[in-house]
Amino acid sequence: MALEWVVLGYAAGAEAIMVLLLTIPGLDGLRRGLVAVTRNLLKPFLSVVPFCLFLLMDIYWKYETRPSCEGDSCTPSEHLRHQKSIMKSQRNALLIAAALVFYWLLYSVTHLVVKIEQLNQRIERLKNKD
């Protein structure tokens, strides 16, 4: 299952970089091309949502089927393995949340940048009419 988490991490990283590049001021020349690329990538990146839901169900299943290690019923090594498993599940849940939030931010920022460009074009047309 490690490959799925690597793929999700790369997708979240790519989303974060695109959001960062779209929101950095002063990149107006690069922004037009970046908006076109981002708009074309939004549909393929939508596959992150069901993928995250699948991985979230995987975390839940592992949580439900994990042997409990409470009190003196397990050895220190089993207790350590149990704690590591809990930490990995929490880390993976944070990665899922980050990927979903970055996708939502990327969608929202791209939509706003496109709307701003359209409004700027309308202003230019109105200025040219006068």
From TrEMBL:
Keyword Protein transport annotated: yes
Record's keyword annotation contains Endoplasmic reticulum: yes
Keywords from the named record: Endoplasmic reticulum, ER-Golgi transport, Membrane, Protein transport, Transmembrane, Transmembrane helix, Transport
Chain segments annotated as transmembrane: 6-24, 45-63, 93-114
Family of this protein: Belongs to the BCAP29/BCAP31 family.
Name of this chain's protein: Endoplasmic reticulum transmembrane protein
Functional note: May play a role in anterograde transport of membrane proteins from the endoplasmic reticulum to the Golgi.
Native species: Hevea brasiliensis
Bilayer topology: Multi-pass membrane protein
Main location (coarse class): endoplasmic reticulum
InterPro entries according to UniProt: BAP29/BAP31
Subcellular location: Endoplasmic reticulum membrane
